[in-house]
């Protein structure tokens, strides 16, 4: 083989080798390009996962908000009951003396007409108006239990006084003044009991008042 022919064959072989290398390079580049959509799909899946997590958070927040609203309802169900006011009470009195008793008794009724339940505790203030001036009743000392007076219901207490058996005119009673517990406004009533008290030289008042509930219905 001549030198020129050998050179031609070598050149041809080099060209074929180069062409093969270029094809391999293109295939390698094409493979890389094919992998890119796969990475995009993975990224898209990741994005979808993030959206799902956000949805779960939104749902949890919504549930939390609803629970907060439910927990907040009914917060006023245990509101405190207010005390009975004089203007809400219908105050009346009647003679409840039992024949043969050593003392007279007047039963005072407090009826709740205020349109709501209210609370009462302790003793009412009681004063007798007489021709000799005002006479305040003393408490009997009985234990006073707090109570709730339902709308439309009544509670009674007793006013006790000595009966005038002296044969004299005594101290003439002209009226009864009642002040409900913890109130300053009073109600003036006609006195339904005996017309007079015996004259007493002793200290203090001979008239006594019991706590709320110390008398039954009308006596």
Short note summarizing the structure:
With 219 residues, the chain is α+β, with helices and mostly antiparallel strands.
CATH superfamily of the largest domain: Immunoglobulins
Using only CA atoms, what is the Rg? 51 Å
What's the CATH architecture of the largest domain? Sandwich
Report the end-to-end length measured between terminal Cα atoms: 152 Å
Give the overall shape.
elongated
Q: Return the average pLDDT rounded to an integer.
A: 74
Output the strand order for the largest sheet: 1-2-8-12-6
Specify the biggest β-sheet: 5 strands, mixed
Strand content: 25-35%
- CATH hierarchy class name of the largest domain: Mainly Beta
H and E string:
HEEEEEEEEEEEE
Helix content bin: 25-40%
The tally of beta strands, per DSSP, is 12
Instruction: Output the number of helix runs.
Output: 1
Write the layout of secondary structure elements.
Elements: H1 3-72, E1 89-95, E2 103-112, E3 118-120, E4 125-130, E5 133-136, E6 138-139, E7 147-149, E8 154-162, E9 171-179, E10 187-189, E11 196-197, E12 208-209
Parallel strand pairs: 6-12
Antiparallel strand pairs: 1-2, 2-8, 3-7, 4-5, 4-9, 8-12, 9-10, 9-11
Write structural notes for this entry.
The radius of gyration is 51 Å and the shape is elongated. The strands form three sheets. It has a five-stranded mixed sheet, with no helix packed on it. Strands 4, 5, 9, 10 and 11 form a five-stranded antiparallel sheet that branches. The longest helix has 70 residues, at 3-72. The termini are far apart. The chain has one helix at residues 3-72; strands at residues 89-95, 103-112, 118-120, 125-130, 133-136, 138-139, 147-149, 154-162, 171-179, 187-189, 196-197, 208-209. It is 32% helix and 27% strand. The protein folds into two domains: 1-72; 86-209, Sandwich (Immunoglobulin-like), CATH 2.60.40. It has 219 residues and is an alpha+beta fold. Strand 9 (171-179) and strand 10 (187-189) form a beta hairpin.
